[in-house]
Amino acid sequence: MATYGFIGVGNMGGALARAVCRTVEPGQVVLSNRTMAKAETLAAELGCRTADGEAVAGSADFIFLGVKPQMMKGLLANIGPILAARKTRFILVSMAAGLSIADIGEMAGEAYPMIRVMPNTPCSIGEGMTLYSLSDDVSAEEEQTFLAVMAEAGKFIAMPEQLIDAGTAVSGCGPAFICLFLEALADGGVACGLPRATAMELAAQTLVGTARLQQESGKHPSALKDAVCSPGGTTIQGVRALEEGGFRAAAMSAVIAAYEKTAALK
Question: What would the pLDDT profile of 81-114 be if each residue is shown by its tens digit?
């Protein structure tokens, strides 16, 4: 049985660990964190084990590197000798924004088999959108094993690595942008007299339902928008107000700004 080790169990690392534990026996999962109390709390919740980062690096078949990009060099300098001394095959799984497969290999001191993933926060409830790229030495069988184990995190899309940063600006940063819209939509309802809880329930379900409608119908968003906008009606006046406020341009600018910041971190 393959083992899955996590070095770093913050928001993303913890979300992916939860997904793995819904697919495999928790005994196959080992958690580590700079603050071990955090790993121990999550391990108690999931029923899996804890160990220090060196032990994870020395034994796990899939090693998830869940630290922030600026901490990656230090982590890999620490576990690099352990990885180099291993006799058994392993795959590194990086979720660090802005760091390519080649970057990780350079920091680690060797180009190890690697899967680069860029998940988003809805992975924690199994509704995530994760982009991934593989190094050339990851086999098709290993890719399928990885995808099967991660199935409970949500949808996975293979993407050329040169497009990962652009994709992440949409799916990785997008939850924050969507939450701003969700809050604003609910705030509008409150301004019109709705109780806060009611306004939030209406806004959240409307957002979820509309996204699902687009996915299942395959219709362009403009067609779905037109279906709600009756001639001379209320909705088209709301659309006009959004256009006057530069809503679409602001959303596009948010994605572009996130992409440019990622590029600047390199």
Answer: 999 999 999 999 999 988 999 999 999 999 999 9
The answer to whether the CB of 85 falls within 8 A of the CB of 138 is no
SS (H, E, C) 208-237: HHHHHHHHHHCCCHHHHHHHHCCCCCHHHH
CATH (domain of 31): 3.40.50.720
Question: What's the structural domain count of the chain?
Answer: 2
Q: Are residues 150 and 219 in the same domain?
A: no
Tokens 């630290």 belong to residue: 67
Please name the residue that has the structure tokens 């948010």.
Answer: 254
Collect all residues with Cβ–Cβ distance below 8 Å to 91 and sequence separation of at least 6: 61, 62, 63, 112, 113, 114, 115, 138, 142, 146
pTM of the model as a whole: 0.90
- What's 35's DSSP letter? S
Residue 261: DSSP 8-state: H
How many C-alpha atoms does 209 have within 13 Å on its Cβ side? 6
In the chain, which ranges are E strands?
Answer: 4-7, 29-32, 49-50, 62-65, 91-94, 114-118, 128-134, 154-158
Q: Are 31 and 96 found together in one domain? A: yes
Would 252 be classed as within a structural domain?
yes
What pLDDT was estimated at residue 97?
A: 86
Question: Does residue 65 belong to any structural domain of this protein?
Answer: yes
- Helix, strand or coil, per DSSP, at residue 134: strand
Give tens-digit pLDDT for 125-152.
999 999 999 999 999 999 999 999 999 9
Is residue 111 classed as helix, strand or coil in its secondary structure?
coil
